[in-house]
Amino acid sequence: MAELKRETVVKTKKKTSNRSVLLGAAFLMATSSIGPGFLTQTTVFTQQLAASFAFVILISLILDVFAQMNVWRIIAVSGLRGQEIANKVLPGLGVFLAVLIVMGGLAFNIGNIAGAGLGLNAMLGIQPITGAIISAAFAIFIFIVKEAGKAMDRIAQAAGFVMILLMMYVALSTSPPVGEALANTVKPEKISILAIVTLVGGTVGGYITFAGGHRLLDAGIKGIDSLPEVTKSSIMGITATGIMRIALFLAVLGVVSQGLAIDPDNPPASVFQLAVGDIGYKIFGVIMWAAAVTSVVGAAYTSVSFIRSFSPALEKYHNWVIILFILVSTATFALVGRPVKVLLLVGALNALILPLSLGTLLIAAYKKNIVGDYKHPLWLTITGAFVVMIMGCLGIMTLFEQLPLLFK
What we know:
It is a multi-pass membrane protein. The chain has a single domain, classed as Amino acid/polyamine transporter I, CATH 1.20.1740.10. It is 83% helix and 0% strand. Helix 1 packs across helix 7 and helix 4 packs across helix 16.
């Protein structure tokens, strides 16, 4: 009887631990995608498209689900990280993918650090560079504690819930035309391909595609038996991102529909201030800081996960490499600012990471030396291939558009 009780307690603890990891992985992916760029993109596109932006959100979320479900499942079944899978598909491809991911993660982390500084400036009046350094210290502390993985999960969950609640409050305060938004979800007055590509790239592009899958792998959640949990976690992550995107969209739509002018120099902050006055600017600061600092954590963790398997030393000291990654990002912002040309180039290259990585994993799903006897669902292969083709074509177009700007 005592033995049975012990087994029951162990099973209950394991189930609770798994639930925490699954939720943590979902929010790590979600909060990684909800960064400073997310807030600005959503605000600007809502200004341009008004209620029609609801259709863009719907399409982008569908594409996000197709991409994430494929990536998370194949990582879980293979028990390998993205770069390891790529190297098995084609020797050297994993190294190339890792270089792109790390370049993109480092460049965009400079923007995330800058966003964290601006968030503390809006919230507490601290100078942006000082705020950036304080935020970097907070992010570094997460990886110094003994159980960094659990700390990261809890921070991601807490920040995600806070952002969602505050954003919903602001959305309700603006009294948006919900009926008009619902009508445009299925029958939009305007359609913007650029907006769809930007949203998909910002939500599941670059390192973000692998954030949740790699976190589950590090927590030991892998194999065919784990697929129901992995699928559930990936959908939770996209759902959290979707709720945040919709809440921000409705907040901006409410402001726009009232004919109020949004400040082009800082569109998201302007929306919050117009919606609920001076307290709105403080709320913007909280959301901006939470969005930026969790993106700093997600970018550093996932980027380093792409190189840690290349060397036993990197594997052993990966938390210190993550800390170094954050320090380099912070020092670059503090000393140089945000190097525009580097960000332009990496942004263009980032658009190619999703089709390259997803395409590689779809090929891996049919290689027995990678996934064993696992049979990948045909509908996921077809929808995944669709995302690869669409994002591949548009990613190449984006690259050619950005290259001339580098030589100006």
